[in-house]
TrEMBL record:
NCBIfam families in the cross-refs: SP
Domain Major facilitator superfamily (MFS) profile: 28-469
SUPFAM superfamilies in the record: MFS general substrate transporter
Keywords of this entry: Membrane, Transmembrane, Transmembrane helix, Transport
Protein name: Major facilitator superfamily (MFS) profile domain-containing protein
GO cellular component term, pick one: membrane
Taxonomic source organism: Penicillium freii
Membrane topology: Multi-pass membrane protein
């Protein structure tokens, strides 16, 4: 199936701002990205509520254990939601998963905003967490599966970058309403939290496209081809790009059908094959490494850290925190844009080595201030906090969902992301209760524990993380295949590598992909 190189590459690398189909596609994908703003908004706004007297009064003057429950209940909701988000996205479609998640989140914000008691507020936050898990499973899947091949890495990396947009909006919203003396000081920010969810609901109702892979898997092949043609090739059903994308989907689905016929079309598919055990182990590892690297201590306890080094005034802390959030957004965006040029594995390594290099002087500076009260040491702490976050956000933010989505083939993508969300919510709950105790008990020595975690994480990345940069979905699915396994029954796709941008000499080379090779990797 040879195709002219120039025709294919012209479609594959078309400038989106000059291409009507790509502009429409990116507009739809922007609504998927918006869903992650809710997560960043939520994790920032509750911390601000605790400094508002009307909120403290309306919640019945909660003690530290009740505040801990109010904060962590959203993670509990996320864990429970992760268990049912995958079946919804798999059986009813990614669009339905997005709609259900955004509807639950919107309902949760209404309950939270109208809360008259702490119990009602907690119930609303549980619903928010429950809904967020749906959008965190269906959102990255739909984003990846809809994306134009030339933009798949970048657009997938942007999903979690919007976390900081939500966080910044929450910070400035609560800063503005914090001067109010009534319960509207916290009810207004709570209501605003529902806006992203409402936008996602409206986008689904207005025609957000479904995943072409899900359509093909559910015998809606013609609809999938029309969708790819409309958004990837301006309506040309017979373009080289659309033909290759449909062939790629066909190879994967045929291989996955072989797996499903063997009785593995259930959660057990995640652990029955060595390849999938490796994938799920990596997905769970990513969830833990991104949360147990010390950055969470900075994110959730930034104010106490500043207080411990002598920066106590509210204007100083507010200014530094506001600057840090913008700083984080910029480095997350930089990481998303670098994911394709330098590769995912390289970006992970740079991020973790950078955090190690920031952790050591941060610990030393904190110790010098704690033991001797040096003013210069306090300023050094702030500088290295910023550098720590910069290194963290280069990979841990943009690749949190992008990298697992690439590692997981279509058949187990939603299930695998559900596992990631469940592990993340569990780790966040543990952090919520362990971090304050550790900081109070051992102070800056707690950073040393995370230095060990960073070194361990760097070793894990170096020895186990595969590079996914520039690979087709067929190649990604075959990443974990055992080369010793029988690879008979070949499905030949001439020029697969070349057509997808790996080899300019399309007519001189062809690639052979086997159904069994892909099946053995599932």
């Amino acid at each position: 199936m040879s195709v002219p190189v120039q025709e294919f590459q012209a479609q594959r690398f078309a400038k989106w701002w000059k291409d009507l189909g790509l502009r429409k596609l990116l507009a739809w994908q922007a609504t998927i990205l918006v869903s992650q703003m809710t997560t960043g908004y939520d994790e920032s706004v509750v911390g601000s509520f605790q400094s508002m007297k009307p909120w403290v009064k309306d919640m019945g003057y909660p003690d530290s254990s009740r505040i801990g429950l109010i904060t962590s209940i959203v993670f509990v909701g996320g864990f429970v939601g992760a268990l049912v988000a995958s079946p919804t996205a798999d059986y009813f479609g990614r669009r339905v998963g997005m709609f259900v998640g955004s509807t639950l989140t919107f309902a949760g914000t209404i309950v939270q905003s109208a809360a008259q008691t702490a119990g009602m507020f907690i119930g609303g936050r549980f619903l928010i967490g429950f809904g967020i898990s749906f959008t965190c499973v269906a959102g990255p899947s739909l984003l990846f599966e809809l994306a134009h091949p030339a933009m798949r890495g970048t657009i997938s990396s942007l999903f979690n970058v919007l976390w900081y947009v939500g966080s910044i909006i929450a910070a400035w919203t609560t800063f503005g309403t914090g001067y109010m003396s009534t319960s509207w000081s916290w009810r207004i920010p709570s209501l605003i939290q529902g806006v992203p969810a409402l936008l996602v609901m409206m986008s689904v109702l207005c025609g957000l496209p479904e995943s072409p892979r899900w359509l093909c898997a559910n015998q809606r092949v013609e609809e999938a081809q029309q969708l790819l043609a409309k958004y990837h090739s301006n309506g040309n059903l017979h373009s080289a790009l659309v033909i290759h994308e449909m062939e790629e989907i066909h190879i994967l689905l045929e291989a996955e059908a072989t797996v499903q016929k063997s009785g593995q079309n259930s959660w057990s598919v995640l652990y029955r094959s060595p390849a999938n055990r490796k994938r799920i182990a990596l997905v769970a590892t990513i969830a833990l490494l991104t949360l147990w690297n010390g950055q969470g201590v900075i994110a959730y306890y930034f104010s106490p850290i500043l207080t411990s080094i002598g920066i106590t005034s509210t204007p100083q802390q507010t200014g530094i925190n506001g600057g840090l959030q913008v700083w984080n957004l910029l480095f997350s965006l930089a990481g998303a844009l670098l994911a394709d040029p330098i590769g995912r594995r390289t970006l992970w390594m740079i991020s973790f080595v950078g955090m190690i290099l920031a952790n050591v002087p941060l610990t030393i500076s904190s110790a010098m201030y704690a033991q001797h009260g040096y003013k210069g040491a306090s300023y050094a702490v702030v500088i290295f906090l910023f550098l720590y976050d910069a290194a963290f956000n280069l990979a841990n933010n943009p690749l949190l969902y992008c990298y697992p989505t690439e590692l997981l083939p279509f058949a187990i993508r939603a299930k695998g992301l559900s596992v990631q969300v469940a592990v993340s919510q569990t780790a966040l709950t543990v952090n919520q209760y362990v971090n304050p105790i550790a900081l109070d008990s051992i102070g800056f020595y707690y950073y040393i524990f995370y230095l060990g975690m960073l070194i361990l994480g760097t070793c894990i990345i170096f020895f186990t993380f595969p590079e996914t940069k520039g690979k087709t979905e067929v190649e990604l699915a075959a990443l974990f295949a055992d080369p010793k396994l029988d690879c008979a029954d070949p499905i030949t796709l001439e020029g697969m590598e070349a057509a997808l941008g790996h080899d300019p000499n399309l007519c001189e080379k062809s690639a052979v992909v086997t159904k069994n090779e892909v099946s053995n990797s599932l």
